């Protein structure tokens, strides 16, 4: 019986992973800073959150002593925690002020620090160190057999809108976890690299950009299929210095968060899946036929 350890199980991606794992009949252990079960944006508790096959715990990903016994009891682990923007004030993430602060900091503009919390969440701590710490804790307690460790990484499609440190720390985490896997042959690291993820109910604002990006991708594919001589926006951006990541955003399929969750479950089950998986691989793992 698979017992899945999910870091951030009450978050956007983590909750979808928990739900998909329960649908497979697995047992699930969710850890998060609050330890609270998942709730919808309107505060509702879906039926699956009260299943007797899932438990909710408070733990700090950077403090393995807070979850070592829990992770040792699981057969696979998924790390879904990370930040897209560095928002310097606690409680501002997701707010307009938090987005503004995060963008300004990423672009190199100084903003005033909160004197009560001067460091705040950083890409290095949240995107790299947390994932590596959890992977090491899982590796130390699983030294034989197949020990799948799935990390939610990202496609490189955000620069220069988002600070390059966002994707750099994701790639650093992948490299460091791969080193851990070299030291422990049982550890099987999988890095899912989606572009934009959306859900019309739990993240309503994501639907419009997903629709726009999907339309841009469709236009690009149609141009390629019909061999139309005029360049698409993605073609034009690729000719601009530094424009490759944004061009990639226009050709990378946006993914419903449930598609990503299905890919997580499949990569845990399939011992042949290892290493980076891009958006097309994720759709294939989730059962799509390209």
Keywords:
single chain; 290 residues; alpha/beta; Rossmann fold; two-stranded parallel sheet; 10 helices
Brief synopsis:
The chain is of the alpha/beta class and 290 residues long.
Task: Describe the model.
Pfam families: Epimerase. GO terms for molecular function: protein-containing complex binding. The relative contact order is 0.12. By secondary structure, this protein is α/β, with parallel strands linked by helices. α1 links the parallel β1 and β2. The model is unreliable at about 90-95 (pLDDT under 50). The protein has a domain at about 5-85 and about 120-200 and about 255-285: 3-Layer(aba) Sandwich (Rossmann fold), CATH 3.40.50. The protein has helices at about 10-25, 70, 95-105, 125-140, 165-185, 205-225, 235-240, 245-250, 255-270, 280-285, and strands at about 5, 25-30, 55-60, 75-80, 145-150, 185-190, 195-200, 255, 275.
């Amino acid at each position: 019986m698979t017992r899945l350890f999910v870091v951030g199980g009450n978050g956007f991606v983590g909750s979808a992973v928990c739900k998909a794992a329960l649908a497979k009949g697995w047992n699930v252990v969710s850890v998060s800073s609050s330890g609270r079960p998942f709730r919808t944006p309107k505060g509702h508790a879906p039926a699956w959150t009260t299943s007797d096959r899932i438990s909710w715990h408070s733990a700090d990903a950077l403090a393995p002593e807070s979850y070592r016994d829990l992770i040792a009891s699981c057969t696979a682990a998924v790390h879904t925690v990370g930040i897209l923007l560095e928002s310097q004030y606690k409680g501002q993430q997701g707010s307009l002020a938090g987005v503004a602060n995060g963008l300004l900091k990423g672009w190199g503009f100084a903003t005033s620090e909160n004197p009560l919390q001067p460091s705040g969440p950083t890409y290095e701590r949240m995107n790299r160190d947390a994932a590596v710490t959890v992977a090491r804790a899982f590796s130390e307690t699983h030294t034989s057999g197949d020990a799948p460790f799935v990390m939610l990484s990202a496609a490189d499609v955000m620069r220069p809108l988002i600070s390059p440190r966002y994707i750099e720390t994701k790639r650093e985490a992948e490299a460091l976890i791969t080193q851990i896997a070299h030291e422990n042959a049982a550890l099987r690291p999988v890095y899912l690299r989606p572009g934009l993820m959306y859900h019309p109910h739990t993240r309503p604002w994501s639907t419009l950009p997903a629709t726009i990006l999907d339309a841009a991708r469709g236009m690009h594919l149609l141009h390629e299929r019909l061999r139309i001589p005029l360049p698409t926006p993605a073609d034009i951006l690729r000719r601009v210095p530094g424009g490759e990541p944004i061009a990639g955003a226009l050709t990378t399929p946006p993914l419903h968060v449930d598609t990503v969750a299905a890919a997580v479950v499949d990569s845990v089950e399939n011992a042949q899946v290892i290493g980076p998986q891009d958006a097309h691989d994720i759709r294939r793992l989730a059962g799509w036929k390209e």
